[in-house]
Amino acid sequence: MLEAKVENFISRHSFSLKNKKIVVGVSGGPDSLALLHYLLGQREKQNLSLVAAHVDHMFRGEESYQDAMFVKSFCEENGISFEMARINVPQLIADSGKSSQVAAREARYDFFQKMMEQYGFPFLAIGHHGDDQIETMLMRFTRGSTGKARAGMPFQRPFHKGCIFRPFLSITKEEIEGYCQDHNLKPRIDPSNQKSIYSRNRFRLEVLPFLKSENKQVHDHFQRLSEDLHTDEDYLQELTAQAMNKVIIKREKAR
Question: Where would you tag: which of 47, 59, 89, 109 has the fewest CB atoms within 10 A of its CB?
Fold first, then answer.
């Protein structure tokens, strides 16, 4: 059951939802809609304050605007505060020369930050899941990333004056889709997710199915590897800081 797996995952990271004030990034797709619905189910029990934040990147004209209206309607029906921005990312790409994915991500997270500051909410919840983690780590391994970059996405990390957390990293896309069906959620589907022009989509459509055919629980193994790598990097950075402090002290004494 998705709820139990998410609760266990959050608890394992010594994180509590109790009394949290959370901005939730919601595109209207299965992952973010399921996340918003899950947090809605926890709202009364955990005394949560929620704001749904949506960005229309204006890539798909009226279709993407309807994604925003879908999220707005869902929020109105469920008594959730809703904020949105329409950002002309194609123009940002033309002006900056950045890739579509980088420009869209920067625009999106800038808006999330503004909403956190506007509401005074220190937490940002994102619907990244276990399949996303596999894709991210494989892409970074392939590019030759080192240090924490190769460790993928952490469950929690600082973000400006607050932090981002990802409660769905322990579950799969398939489980999220099952959750949507069980709760009669009708998410919007972005057709660009099926286009092989994006490297992430190639990993998603070609590599991930092979890995899952070899082991249905491969996402659990990647998540454990991610957490081990983050722990190792934190420890190495701590040792480095201690060694540097000793060098500085010795140099100061030698003066």
Answer: 47
- Residue 52, strand partner residues: 24, 82
CA 200 and chain centroid, separation: 15
Q: How far apart are CA 209 and CA 215, in angstroms?
A: 10
DSSP reduced 3-state for 27: coil
Q: Residue 206's domain spans which residues?
A: 2-254
In this prediction the pTM is 0.89
Residue type, 104: A
CATH assignment of the domain containing 177: 3.40.50.620
- Number of neighbouring beta carbons within 10 Å of residue 208: 19
What CA–CA distance (Å, rounded) separates 31 from 12? 21
DSSP codes, 141-196 = HHHT--GGGGG---SEEEETTEEEE-TTTTS-HHHHHHHHHHTT------GGGG-T
Average pLDDT, the chain: 90
Question: Mean pLDDT throughout 215-231?
Answer: 91
User: What is the tally of structural domains in the chain?
Assistant: 1
Burial class (CB in 10 A: 0-12, 13-18, 19+), 158: exposed
How far apart (Å, rounded) are the C-alpha atoms in residues 131 and 166? Answer: 13
Using only C-alpha atoms, the chain has a radius of gyration, in whole angstroms, of 20
Two tokens at 200? 């992430």
- In angstroms, the Cα distances linking 136 to 83, 125, 182, 204 are 28, 18, 28, 10
In this predicted structure, the answer to whether residue 166 has a pLDDT above a threshold of 70 is yes
